[in-house]
Amino acid sequence: RINIGFAASSDLLTSQVGTANDAVSRNYFDSPRVQIAELTAADYTAIQQLYARYNTTIDRGDADGWAATFTPDGVFANNFKGTEALKGFVNNWRTNPAMNGAARRHFSADLVITAGAQDVTASVSTLLVDLSTKPTSIASYVTYSDVLVKTADGWRFRSRAIKAEAAPAAPTAK
């Protein structure tokens, strides 16, 4: 078990991180996010539910619900920032034939959640399945790298970076 404690002294916020025998001191200047000490089982469950809501809301075309999985200034794909831009992304995803979002579904696995002294990060692997093909096919495989924040309304994405994963090159004949 790791104990994290915080103490304020004038303009300096000092944290003691470590076990009772090997505490390490860190100084944080102007850091309003220094508040994560330890995630509870309820936090882990709530974060897992956030990921489920993210997938189901975009798959159902619920732009308001999907945008609500982010903070009001949340960022998706380093490109869409804030609630209105996030809603616009979902509407485009669902209606743009090139994106084919209305026929795609998200399936995520391998969620790894890491609590840090200043924030919570997570990564998850996701398959995008295309229901418009016969038989149904995998449209793409992506990984998300996320920064999460606990708000008064529960856990939300502060940012989501997305990386499309390509299949490895086929071996060459010898």
Present the secondary structure layout.
Blueprint (H helix, E strand, L loop, with lengths): L2 E7 L2 E7 L5 E5 L12 H20 L2 H5 L2 E7 L3 E2 L1 H13 L8 E12 L4 E11 L6 E15 L2 E11 L10
Parallel strand pairs: 4-9
Antiparallel strand pairs: 1-2, 2-3, 4-5, 6-7, 7-8, 8-9
Question: In a nutshell, what does this entry contain?
Answer:
The protein is α+β, with helices and mostly antiparallel strands.
Which features characterize this protein?
174 residues, alpha+beta, six-stranded mixed β-sheet, three-stranded antiparallel β-sheet, disordered N terminus
Report what the structure shows.
By secondary structure, the chain is α+β, with helices and mostly antiparallel strands. It contains 3 helices and 9 strands, in the order E-E-E-H-H-E-E-H-E-E-E-E. The strands form 2 sheets. The chain has a 6-stranded mixed sheet with strand order 5-4-9-8-7-6. Strands 1-2-3 form a 3-stranded antiparallel sheet, with no helix packed on it. Strand 1 (3-9) and strand 2 form a beta hairpin. The termini are far apart. Residues 1-35 have low confidence and may be disordered.
